Amino acid sequence: MSEQFDIVVIGAGPAGYHAAIRAAQLGMKVACIDAALGKDGKPALGGTCLRVGCIPSKALLDSSRQFWNMGHLFGDHGISFKDAKIDVGAMVGRKDRIVKQFTGGIATLFKANKVTPYYGFATLHPERLVKVKQHDGSEVELTGTNVIIAAGSDSIELPFAKFDGEAIVDNVGALDFTEVPKRLAVIGAGVIGLELGSVWKRLGAEVTILEALPDFLAVADAEVAKAALKEFRKQGLDIRLGAKVSKSVVTGKGKKKEVVVSYADKDGEQSITVDRLLVAVGRKAASKGLLADGTGVKLDDRGRIEVDEHCHTGVDGVWAVGDCVRGPMLAHKGFEEGIAVAELIAGLPGHVNFDTIPWVIYTEPEIAWVGRTEQQLKEDGVPYRAGSFPFAAIGRAVAMGEPAGFVKVLAHAETDRVLGMHLVGVGVSELVHEGVLTMEFKGSADDLARICHAHPTLSEAIHDAAMAVDKRAIHKAN
Ligand code: NAD
Questions:
Q1: Domain coordinates of the chain in residue numbers?
Q2: Which of 192, 355, 400, 457 has the highest count of CB atoms within 10 angstroms of its CB?
């Protein structure tokens, strides 16, 4: 006999736990199932984001940034010290404590909202029956009036660079190195490669990033990508573009392992020898083993669950959200989809505006954007005006010793409506939300230009960039 719920959520990552908590707030009886275990072998809620993604990587990015600043920024402030050392074990331990705090926080939130957690692997069967294989080997059966699949995503493994958890790792392994690798190669100059490559570079590793595409960060605005690449190379990140990796060979044992990585670029076949190899070539939907025969739920050619614009699978009462469906693999996109589906099930309006989902890459300088890039506007034939402003002319940024980067505002040439905001520089992960808000409220560059911004703040760069759209920025020649 299966236990009956109003909603059964498969997956307690960002999309799943948001769906579960919002549905419980709306008075529904909710179960949420997750198979993941933490480093201590105990069930850990929160998904990739909390366990091995956004949160732990930010912890390491922050630790490594403090260390880097000691050697690169402190001197300019007149601060000196002797023998800065990094204790990798202590740094990773701090990261683990933060992860535990947040994964435990989801369990507390479930309790407070009366969401029933189940710990094990869930498979969806016809008629919204969900069978859960629990960690002790027992099985429970749940039936939902509605089922929300939020199974997330897994790292893509390359056939010629299989993860061994030692020499060849994915993002999870690269969060737990026990010492700074002398030489680290990264396959893929995407978000994970740049963030984790930066962490270990700042701590002293020689980092080589091999990227197959000829253009750096092709998803970002070209000017932003160019400025970021220049800064990363200045920091010593060896980023090789148009470098397609085809082979890796591991030699030696344990800590003495080395990896010979072979790639082809415009000059022909090349190879480098490193101590650790991080493979960061994207993620795939975690749909394996999720669906029993006869559910009617379809997968697309990339293994993602097919859904319509409301995250409905087309099968009565079955929905899917987050990384396991189309759209960007971003935790906050999953948050919004989870909430929207819970509200739709409750008969409320639920909607996610894909046009205003912000992107952030937490490097130094940070990269962030919302809306269309200049190249996309050109391709779409949209007439636009651009205004940009450098942080080098912003008093606060210079006082902080962080003058790199700029803000660019793109607005429709006739209506002045903001179509995109692109930022590279210190703290832009927070600043980008000014662009998100403006776009959500269908604001114009002139609106932004006429809104009072506190001085001295980093946000003045947005104010001046908005004024520059109309060639009236005060602090630069227009
Ligand atoms: P990605 O898609 O961002 O980048 C992968 C890169 O690997 C691409 O540029 C691709 O051209 C390159 N590549 C693929 N095969 C290659 C080969 N054989 N040789 C050389 N280069 C090769 O993927 P990711 O960095 O692994 O991130 C995965 C997902 O997680 C992304 O969707 C990302 O948005 C998400 N994520 C987001 C954040 C954030 O928002 N800050 C952080 C981490 C991850």
A1: 3-155+284-352, 168-280, 356-469
A2: 192
Q: Is 331 helix (H, G, I), strand (E, B) or coil?
A: helix
pLDDT at 476 (0 to 100): 87
Identify the CATH number of the domain defined by range 3-155+284-352: 3.50.50.60
For residue 81, which phi and psi values (nearest 5 degrees)?
-160, 170
SS3 386: strand
- CA–centroid distance, 280 to ligand 1, in Å, is 5
Determine the pLDDT at residue 1.
77
Render pLDDT for 91-140 as a digit per residue (tens, 0 to 9). Answer: 999 999 999 999 999 999 999 999 999 999 999 999 999 999 999 999 99
Amino acid residing at 9: V
Instruction: Name the CATH topology of 168-280.
Output: FAD/NAD(P)-binding domain (3.50.50)
Amino acid at 6: D
H/E stretch holding 406 reads strand 405-412
Mutational pocket test of ligand 1: of 217, 283, 357, 370, the residue with most ligand atoms within 8 Å of the beta carbon:
283
Q: Give the model's pLDDT for residue 255.
A: 79
User: What span, in angstroms and rounded, lies between the C-alpha atoms of 451 and 437?
Assistant: 13
Is position 72 annotated as part of the catalytic site? no
pTM above 0.85, yes or no: yes
- pLDDT, residue 40, reads 94
Distance 302 CA to ligand 1 centre (A): 15
Phi and psi, residue 474, nearest 5°: -80, -40
167 phi and psi angles, rounded to 5 deg: -85, -35
Choose one of 191, 240, 246 to mutate for the ligand 1 pocket test, by most ligand atoms within 8 angstroms of C-beta. 191
Please say whether the beta carbons of 277 and 169 come within 8 A.
yes
Amino acid present at 124: L
Topology match between the domains 3-155+284-352 and 168-280: yes
What lines the ligand 1 site, CB under 6 Å? 187-193, 195, 210-213, 244-245, 280-283, 328-330, 360-362
Q: What is 356-469's CATH topology?
A: Enolase-like; domain 1 (3.30.390)
pLDDT of residue 301: 96
Is the pLDDT at 348 greater than 90? The verdict is yes
Q: How confident is the model at residue 273 (pLDDT cuts 50, 70, 90)?
A: very high
Q: Give CA–CA dist 91/84, Å, rounded.
A: 14
CA angle 32/56/117 to nearest 5° reads 10
Q: Are 151 and 261 in contact (CB under 8 A)?
A: no
